[in-house]
Amino acid sequence: MRSEGMRIVESVLPSLPKRPQVILSANDDMALGAIEALQSQGVKPGEILVTGFDAVPEALARVRDGWLAVTADQRPGFAVQTAMSQLVANVREKKAITGADYPPTLITKENLQQAERIGEAGN
């Protein structure tokens, strides 16, 4: 997917009459590919805002250095913990499994430390 994000930006950006203000990516991997293409075209961090989705460690590092404006943290650890807690309660206490709805958290420079996987993002 990263190569697809890179390919799209490399092929579309030069043909536009005006640079876009934002690139919306379906996931962080495509956003990281878009960022690589922007870097190769001399674009500086923040000149074109790039968004991602998944809050993978490399994307969190790009948020920190200003290349990625925002990513959505789906909190997979929280989802697994919630599912396991409900499953254990169902097996042990016959409690109904109710499921859980929780929105992703938008991660920016301002709240980067709230990302579930920030410890994996390196320095």
Automatic annotation (TrEMBL):
<protein>
    <submittedName>
        <fullName>D-ribose-binding periplasmic protein</fullName>
    </submittedName>
</protein>
<dbReference type="Pfam" id="PF13407">
    <property type="entry name" value="Peripla_BP_4"/>
</dbReference>
<feature type="domain" description="Periplasmic binding protein">
    <location>
        <begin position="4"/>
        <end position="94"/>
    </location>
</feature>
<dbReference type="GO" id="GO:0030313">
    <property type="term" value="C:cell envelope"/>
</dbReference>
<dbReference type="GO" id="GO:0030246">
    <property type="term" value="F:carbohydrate binding"/>
</dbReference>
<keyword id="KW-0732">Signal</keyword>
<dbReference type="InterPro" id="IPR028082">
    <property type="entry name" value="Peripla_BP_I"/>
</dbReference>
<dbReference type="GO" id="GO:0055085">
    <property type="term" value="P:transmembrane transport"/>
</dbReference>
<comment type="similarity">
    <text>Belongs to the bacterial solute-binding protein 2 family.</text>
</comment>
<dbReference type="InterPro" id="IPR025997">
    <property type="entry name" value="SBP_2_dom"/>
</dbReference>
